[in-house]
Design goal:
Layout: H1 2-18, H2 21-24, H3 28-36, H4 42-47, E1 50-75, E2 78-105, H5 108-114, E3 118-120, E4 126-129, E5 138-139, E6 165-180, E7 185-190
Parallel strand pairs: 4-6
Antiparallel strand pairs: 1-2, 2-6, 2-7, 3-7, 4-5
Amino acid sequence: MRFRNFTLVCFITLALTGLSTPTLADNYTETIELFKKSPEVQPFFADAYGYAVFPMVGKGGIGLGGAYGKGRVFRDGAATGTVSLIKLSAGFQFGGQAFSEIIFFKDKRAYAEFTSGTFEFDATASAVAITAGAQAQIGTGGNTAGVSLGPATGHQRATRYVRGMAVFVHTIGGLMYEAALAGQKFLYKPNQ
């Protein structure tokens, strides 16, 4: 039974990311502009050392879950490399969701830590949702649920850098409830 659940999770995750990946492959500018529309996010663009952008991350789960997304890391407005986001989790979770994500680096130390090759958020990491609906907070290792009404609606909670990083998400679609102890893992590859 568990193998069947895992197969279904993989299918949901791949479907969420795979159906739109060609369309979103060159969508970094649009995703950055979407985040810039949020008053909560604008100050981070002004003072961050750098940031990572994921136009689409798909996640799904029924007991076992997973998430995947491709992104780029930027410093001084130029892409410095590509990054893959991977998350595998076990625990109570159900549904599927697609979202955009941006991670700001406060300083050179945080940027270097993230771009060291592999990086993983711990269970205390969380992201601020910039969409309205049931989402007030999305954690990389906590409870999540959400419905999106758009970037300019709803009330966002104030955020700050935690351990040199600040994370924001924008829900594209889907609904997911998750209570799992797993963090997002990132694999960075510098431009050649």
